[in-house]
């Protein structure tokens, strides 16, 4: 306790403590925002790569739609633990093109909900590839 009294008596220590207490909410908001942006970035990158891997697997298979969906889900679930419950993978094959669309609902921190900050919760990507050689 004597250390706290000494800190309060010392004007430099007291000023530093008050400054830290005043700035702490802003620092925490910044850290939470950076964490959320990181989650969004990882989600978007994973969705992009899953769509690409699905389309690539689809053009190399005799049943392109099933292979594309399976490959996209395999890729996404290997990176994001909640992929199976939060991702939607659709694929279609028309003519010589396989198109895979992936949507992922990423988790949103309660901080953004409480303060009415609306950032979308869905990231989406689509990838198409041409079938050059049929298996």
Automatic annotation (TrEMBL):
InterPro entries (UniProt xref): TadE-like_dom
Q: Which domain of life is it from?
A: Bacteria
Q: One Pfam family of this protein, by short name?
A: TadE
Q: Which UniProt keywords apply?
A: Membrane, Transmembrane, Transmembrane helix
Which residue range or ranges hold the TadE-like domain?
Answer: 20-56
Segments spanning the bilayer are 20-42
Q: What is this protein called?
A: TadE-like domain-containing protein
Gene source species: Mahella australiensis (strain DSM 15567 / CIP 107919 / 50-1 BON)
């Amino acid at each position: 306790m004597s250390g706290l009294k000494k800190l309060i008596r010392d004007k430099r220590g007291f000023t530093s403590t008050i400054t830290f207490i005043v700035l702490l909410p802003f620092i925490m908001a910044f850290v939470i925002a950076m964490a959320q942006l990181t989650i969004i970035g990882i989600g978007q990158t994973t969705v992009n790569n899953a769509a690409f891997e699905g389309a690539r697997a689809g053009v190399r298979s005799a049943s392109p739609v099933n292979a594309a969906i399976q490959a996209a889900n395999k890729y996404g679930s290997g990176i994001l633990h909640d992929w199976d419950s939060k991702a939607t993978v659709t694929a279609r094959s028309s003519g010589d093109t396989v198109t895979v669309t992936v949507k992922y609902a990423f988790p949103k921190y309660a901080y953004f909900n409480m303060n009415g900050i609306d950032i979308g919760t869905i990231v989406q990507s689509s990838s198409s590839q041409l079938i050059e050689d049929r298996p």
